[in-house]
Specification:
Length: 356
């Protein structure tokens, strides 16, 4: 969801002076380049992969989606700065989503580069491995949709599934699981790995405080807020975790944001404050809806809210976005429960919320 300001689709990045998704290896600081790689989806055009040049080779923050066009572009972009896949020493992956993890793990295992991932992503990877053998049954997202009161949307998601199984090679386990915070010495640089659960349980950001930059993954995005609640297995209080993680980033120095999606942005403080205010506003809207309507499911509340920067009605969204909206609304309502402002009762047609 967008949160005001310049739309992602029109944003110019200051490191390139061009649209942030334009092809290139754009220098954001001495020895650090941003390489946007394409994504096969309409909502997000690209993912930024960051290349850090060190004494022992290259460190990449994220790897992109394992599709031929992204692999070819990464190869071409690395060669433009005098490097290649064989120079990659390690991938520090912010989280397990396929546009960040899959090309990293494929290249890492092909070229002997270490792949590092947050330990709290292990359950999701294990689920994907079971799915690659057709041993997982129906998509676990359908159960989450049903708890949101969105049975019809769950049926549409199931009907639209193409039946293709995940490729095991795209989801190989990492060489190192990150557990807690730690510092990586990557030759001439120290990167502080900070656990920032919320978007996913094992999300990490990496701060180069000496350089004044934050490799922010999907945690702090300059023009949108990441999806919350769209993760399996479901995590408890994903929005509460996300907001607490934003507060953790706010405790760091004010850093330039190097995001996974969108342009480089000047201030982590400014953006964190905007994101926290945005979600407090959404929480207030959710609470007002529950108070007005009585006992309701997440889907009912989601239909009362506006979506995207244009405040589109729920019915204007495509079915995938409707499902995402219902799950994100549930995350907001669950935080209201934790704050003691709403009660929740599990029912066969979904969790029902009532103001207290």
């Amino acid at each position: 969801m967008t949160t005001g300001g310049i739309a992602t689709g029109h944003a110019i990045s200051p490191d390139s002076g061009r649209h942030w998704a334009d092809e290139g290896a754009w220098q954001v600081a001495e020895g650090i380049h941003r390489i946007p790689l394409p994504l096969p989806m309409d909502a997000l055009k690209a993912v930024n992969v960051y290349v850090i040049q060190g004494d022992d080779g290259l460190t990449l923050i994220d790897g992109g989606w394992s599709i031929p066009v992204a692999r070819d572009l990464l190869d071409r972009s690395l060669r433009s700065i005098g490097s290649g896949f064989g120079d990659i020493k390690r991938f520090l992956v912010t989280h397990v989503h396929r546009d960040h993890f899959t090309l990293a793990t494929v290249l890492g295992h092909e070229y002997g580069a270490d792949v590092v991932l947050g330990a709290e992503e292990r359950p999701a990877l294990e689920l994907l491995h079971r799915a690659s053998t057709a041993d997982v049954g129906e998509s676990p997202f359908l159960a989450v949709l049903r708890t949101a009161g969105a049975e019809e949307i769950a049926q549409q998601w199931a009907a639209g599934h193409d039946g293709e199984l995940p490729k095991a090679a795209d989801w190989a386990f990492p060489d190192l699981w990150l557990d807690g915070d730690r510092t990586f010495d990557i030759g001439r640089r120290l990167l502080d790995a900070v656990h920032t659960p919320g978007h996913t349980p094992g999300h990490y950001v990496f701060a180069d405080q000496a350089e004044g930059v934050l490799f922010a993954g999907d945690h702090v995005l300059p023009t949108i807020t990441p999806s919350i609640g769209f993760t399996v297995p479901p995590s408890e209080q994903p929005l509460g975790q996300f907001m607490a993680s934003l507060a953790r980033v706010r405790e760091l120095p004010d850093l330039r944001i190097l995001p996974a999606h969108g342009p480089v942005a000047p201030s982590s403080y400014e953006r964190v404050d905007e994101l926290l205010a945005h979600h407090e506003h959404r929480l207030a809207l959710c609470l007002a809806s529950v108070k007005e309507r009585g006992s309701v499911t997440s889907l009912v509340v989601a239909k009362d809210l506006g979506w995207t920067r244009h405040e589109r009605a729920f019915g204007e969204l495509d079915v995938f976005s409707q499902g995402m909206a219902a799950m994100e609304t549930k995350a907001h309502l669950d935080l209201l429960v934790a704050r003691g402002q709403v009660s929740a009762v599990d029912r066969p047609d979904g969790v029902v919320y009532t103001a207290v």
